[in-house]
């Protein structure tokens, strides 16, 4: 399970970095807290951070469940794809909203695979 824990930690570090990008964008575009709206560049950076938080709510428990009931190595591999997908998503979305699709698809695929695998693994463990 150490690989699962490592990937979860990488996802959390990534989220922390995205939070730093929001702070930097606040300074760059003059958006004072607690405001959550500003120029489009700020809004996209803010959305990357918030959308990643939403993604983590499914990602983290599914990583642990998949790792426990299916395979920790496969969980870590699929999870790594999800973390990379989030980075691709962030780079694309911060540049322009039209470029968020590939990263969203990659991280979405990882979450769906982890969720379905966890569900199957837990159901099989019941029988």
Describe this structure as you would to a colleague.
The chain is mostly helical and 127 residues long. The protein has one domain (2-122): Four Helix Bundle (Hemerythrin (Met), subunit A) (Up-down Bundle). The protein contains 4 helices and no strands. The protein has helices at 2-29, 40-69, 72-95, 101-126. The two termini are 23 Å apart.
What key phrases describe this protein's structure?
elongated, mainly alpha, 4 helices, 127 residues, single chain, Four Helix Bundle (Hemerythrin (Met), subunit A)
Shape estimate: elongated
**Proportion in β-strands:** under 5%
Strand and helix order: HHHH
Name of the CATH homologous superfamily:
Membrane associated eicosanoid/glutathione metabolism-like domain
Q: Total domains, how many? A: 1
Which regions contain 5 or more consecutive residues with pLDDT less than 50?
none
Rounded to the nearest angstrom, the distance between the terminal CA atoms is: 23 Å
Please tell me the CATH architecture by its name: Up-down Bundle
The percent of residues in helical segments reads over 70%
CATH class: Mainly Alpha
Task: Let me know the largest β-sheet.
Answer: none
DSSP strand tally: 0
Rg (CA only)? 16 Å
């Amino acid at each position: 399970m150490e690989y699962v824990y490592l990937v979860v930690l990488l996802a959390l570090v990534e989220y922390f970095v995205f939070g730093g990008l929001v702070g930097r964008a606040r300074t760059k575009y003059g958006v004072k807290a607690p405001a959550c709206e500003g120029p489009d560049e700020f809004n996209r950076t803010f959305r990357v951070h918030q959308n990643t938080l939403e993604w983590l709510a499914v990602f983290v428990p599914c990583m642990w469940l998949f790792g426990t009931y299916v395979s920790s190595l496969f969980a870590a591999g699929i999870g790594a794809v999800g973390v990379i997908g989030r980075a691709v998503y962030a780079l694309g979305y911060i540049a322009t909203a039209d470029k968020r699709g590939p990263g969203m698809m990659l991280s979405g695929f990882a979450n769906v695979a982890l969720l379905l695998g966890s569900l199957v693994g837990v159901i099989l463990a019941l029988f």
